[in-house]
Each structure stands twice: as structure tokens, then as C-alpha cells.
Amino acid sequence: MDESAKTLPKSSPDKEDDQAAFTPNAKSENANNSSKSDKDSQDEKDDGNVVFPDFDELVIESARDVPWFLIEPDSKCKHFWSLIILSLVIYVATILPIRIAFLTDSQTWLVTDYVIDFIFMVDVALNFFII
Fold first, then answer.
1. pLDDT tens for residues 50-64?
2. Please, what's the b/e burial string for 13-28 (b: 16 or more CB within 10 A of its CB; e: otherwise)?
3. Are residue 80 and residue 113 in the same domain, yes or no?
4. What pLDDT is attached to residue 96?
């Protein structure tokens, strides 16, 4: 008898088993193959998609865990500060070039420029503490 007659033919895997091996939940599907009735009774949707938590729940949870020194981007103080910075940027963009071109330097304008520069530096530092 020749040896090819003694060997058993290899069984080919089902097409579904091949696809199941490449899905993200293949490990859990193979482990729970015997308990399919339990899985059907739970009414789970297993389409391979990842379910993320609700965004509103994440925002509420993160608001509780915020340290006191961090600034919320939607707070009233932050909006007020942004309004102050916007008005100073408009001042620097409009008044400063006119003053440099047509007016002489005076002590009042110099102090005003230093105060505005200091406020801009504080703004840069505060931006490190915004969530």
C-alpha cells in the first residue's frame, strides 16, 4: 500500500471561521462558541463596532475632576478675558501705527504700551492653564 492512501485528507476550514479569525472580537467569539444561547438571550449587537461613551457624560465627569487652577474654555471669566485681549489687539493694530507715524513719544503713551505688553504676557501665561 502506498503512503498517500494511509494519510487522511486535510479538512478545509469553513469560510465563516476564516472571517471570524480576522475580526476584532475573534477571541471572544471563539471562547464563547459553546454558549451561543446565552449570547442570544442578552440581545447584544455584535457587528464589530466599538461603542464609545456618550460625549455629555464625558464632559460632566471631566468637570468634576478639574483642579482649581485650570480654566474652563467656556467659562464667563475666560470669555471676558478674551474680550479684553481682543480690544487690546484692535488698539495695537489701529492706534499704535497712527501714533508712531504722526505723534511724538510721550511718557503717557510709553506707560500705556508697557501695560498692554504686560497684559499680553499674562495672557500667554494664562493660556497654559486652559483645559
1. 777 666 666 555 556
2. eeeeeeebeeeeeeee
3. yes
4. 87
Q: Write out the three cell numbers for 77.
A: 471669566
24 Cβ neighbours under 8 A, 6+ residues apart: 48, 50
What is the biggest distance separating any 2 CA atoms in the chain, rounded to whole angstroms? Answer: 114
CB 119 within 8 A of CB 84: yes
Residue 82 lies in a domain: yes
Q: In sequence order, what are the residues at sequence separation of 6 or more whose Cβ sits closer than 8 angstroms to the Cβ of residue 38? A: 32
The winner for highest mean pLDDT among 13-27, 35-49, 55-69, 74-88 is 74-88
Both 123 and 94 in one domain: the answer is yes
Q: What is the pLDDT of residues 30-51, one digit of tens each?
A: 555 545 555 554 445 556 677 7
What one-letter code names the amino acid at 2?
Answer: D
Please enumerate in sequence order all residues whose Cβ is within 8 A of that of 131, keeping only pairs 6 or more positions apart, or say none. 62, 66, 70, 71, 72, 73
Range of the domain at 19: 13-51
List the grid coordinates of 74.
467656556
Assessment of whether the complete model's pTM goes beyond 0.85: no
